[in-house]
Amino acid sequence: MNLNWFFLTLFYSGHASKAPGTIGTLVSLPMGLAVLIFLGPQTLFLLTLLITLIAIKSIDRYERQSGIHDNQKIVIDELVGMWIALSIAPGMLFALNDLAVWENGIAVQIALSFIFFRLYDIKKPSIIGRIDRNAKGGWGVMGDDIVAGFAAGISAALVWQLMLKLSGMLA
After folding, report:
1. CA dist 96 to 33, 67, 103, Å?
2. 14 lies in a domain?
3. Which of 1, 43, 53, 108 is the most exposed place for a label (fewest CB within 10 A)?
4. CA distance 153 to 9
5. 128 is in which domain, residue-wise?
6. 119 lies in a domain?
7. What are the tens digits of pLDDT across the range 77-92?
8. Which of 58, 29, 59, 63 lies closest to 44, judged by CA?
9. Is residue 6 part of a domain?
10. pLDDT for residue 105 is more than 90
């Protein structure tokens, strides 16, 4: 195994015997939160773009050498999708102790981002599924997770806003 494989499998988390995508997403979550807390959503998003570009080239190289498309052990795409969702919802600067404050919705939006991302990544509705089926190479592996990340972040933010509206109506 080499450094490229270490990167693509997200520190070998993709070698999990069950649900490597979910494990990869769980591994990426605290790393994304650390960047979000200490450096902000813009930095998280820009770092995600950089990792995406590196991952696409690395996946292309892996696929040329192995002849295998979309190996399920490759989970760097889960990191990218999860980090995109986190950069959208909650998508704001906050401190570590803010996670425990219900009123600001940060913890709720993080949980919703994870749930929506896994749902979209597993079910692959609409364009997410088309990208997964039709795109080739690194873009094929990464593309569906990129779109799922955007959809998850937007969905989490919308659900949180709906929760706020409903709680205001009920109060």
Report:
1. 9, 44, 15
2. no
3. 1
4. 23
5. 21-170
6. yes
7. 999 999 999 999 887 7
8. 29
9. no
10. no
